[in-house]
Amino acid sequence: MKRPLQSVFVSVSASCLAVLITAFTAMPSFAADPFRSTNAREIGSETQKAFELMFKDGNYVAAVKQLDLAVRTEANDPLLFSLRASTFYAKEDYLSMKIAGDRVRVNAEALKGKDNLRAYTYLAVSDLISAGYIIKTEGVSSAPSALPLVQSVFDNIQKAKDISPNDPELNLIKGYVDMLIASVLPLSDLETALESLKQYAAPDYLKWRGIALAYRDARKPELALDAVNKALASAPSNPELNYLKGQVLWMQGGSSIPTAKKHFELALSKSKQLNPSLLSEIREQCRNISNGTNCPEQK
To answer: Are 85 and 100 in contact (CB under 8 A)?
Structure first.
């Protein structure tokens, strides 16, 4: 069922925060770029570790600690503060989310003339965070006041696209935005919305996760299952992907129900690394599929 049009502001600004994110305060060592196999950008090794802990390993608790470590030496990377904003969003600490989003903007502005592609990409992310702050603190009725920020998201994405239309980092962010808009606008075409993710986005564990979420929400469980299996092939230890697969299998119903329950339990077997709100959600859904019985989880 399509949600009200005004809720596009909530979905686009808030949901992209999960997924999703000049002179150095100290000179970090640079790690392999988590997005690109060629033409790598200077993303600090501590920030990369946090990114992979959060999205590849699904270890929210360790990722938060790693971000606190990364900010000491890599505080000028906009990706770092995008990740911090997402953790504050998960805790419903919207003021801290907004402050982190402001740092994303400062760092993105500082990249102009050095790396305009990432500068415009993260200016879009900062606008998204600011729009999300307005909606979460003032309510859906404030959506019109967030409209200029949402428009700025698209403007900055287009500027980045003009520089490098096939860039994986850009297309990961653009793909999630396009996907979420398609989920709330009745006239949007889902397959067109997924083109950026399917063709150019990276890494695979986030690319296919986004595609699986889109097909899940579109009530296309067969396509969602294929996508989440590809995400799991790239990140087999991520409990959030087990949870997503469990949801898709539950949607299929019938003989898929026992396997769905197993995937909920696999997610709960790593309960200590999950963010509290997601953990509560998984517990509830596993209890529902188990006829009211609590599911086992990590001791």
So the answer is: yes
CA–CA gap between residue 125 and residue 256 (Å, rounded): 38
How does DSSP assign 96-145, residue by residue? Answer: HHHHHHHHHHHHHHHTTTT-HHHHHHHHHHHHHHHHHHHHHHH-GGGHHH
Q: Determine the length of the chain.
A: 299
Q: What pTM did the predictor assign? A: 0.86
Q: Which residue in 282, 250, 288 sits closest to 266, CA to CA?
A: 282
To the nearest 10°, the Cα dihedral for 114, 48, 238, 215? Answer: 0
Does residue 7 carry a pLDDT above 90? no
Residue 52: name the closest of 63, 68, 65, 38 by CA. 63
Per-residue pLDDT tens for 80-107?
999 999 999 999 999 999 999 999 999 9
Nearest to 5 by CA among 185, 193, 187, 135: 185
CA 90 to chain centre: 11
- The one-letter code for the residue type at 285 is Q
Question: For 58, left (φ over 0), alpha (ψ -120 to 50), or beta?
Answer: left
Contact partners, residue 192, CB within 8 Å, separation at least 6 = 178, 182
